[in-house]
Amino acid sequence: MEIKDFLIESALLSQGLISISAEEMERLWPPEFNNIAWLEKGQVKIGGMKEFLPFRAQKQSGRIDYYHFKEAMAQGLSGALTASGTMRLAEELGLTLVVSCGIGGIGDIQGEELCPDLPALAESSCSLLATSPKDVVNIEASLNWLRDHKVPLIGIESPICNGYLFKGKDLALDYALDPKHPQIQAMRGLFLNRIAEDQRLKDRDLLEEAIQAGKEAESKGLAFHPAANAYFDQASKGYSSEIQFESLIANAKLAQEYF
Known about the structure:
The protein is built from ten helices and 14 strands. It is an alpha/beta fold.
């Protein structure tokens, strides 16, 4: 697959990596990945980190998903694209793969009791290469919902999903594939490329505290995920942002080489 044959979501890069500076982001981002996608005043933008950083600096609060993408364009809105929002754009462009990191799921997040990432996977012709559903949602219920809706769950070199930033319960996926498998390009579904367990956060108390920070943000009319990510970042002295950024890059490299 050529590098421009997949898109990279922008929500994490825009709102989730609090302590990673623009200079560090540009330095660490592989220059060949010029396929980050976002909306600016209703216009689709696709570019590399240098082109994306001015948008990030504007601190846009919008997060545009699969089901609000066309509306956002029509209304001339600006915003980062979530995993599902990027899938909607990929469909428009005739692409079949989106790269993300942590995705949404089933939980009690306001307006995301069923995150659009899940029904988008069930409806879209586009596959998603991600890391895991986020720890702040019910990962087991999320995977079960996808399985019930006939979305193949494919682990890269591992048959289990057991958390995102933290190690949780081992949950069986449908398949485990070596990325060199000759049929991987023809498969459709959710591909999960997990963060190594020894690199994840160890103190699970931080998870409940981050959820509380997200709920407090909701009570003020703000978004849950940026607030929870900001708490993880602060509590881990930037480590949570570092491993998420590295995981997103690892997923993009996997997509570039094998899909």
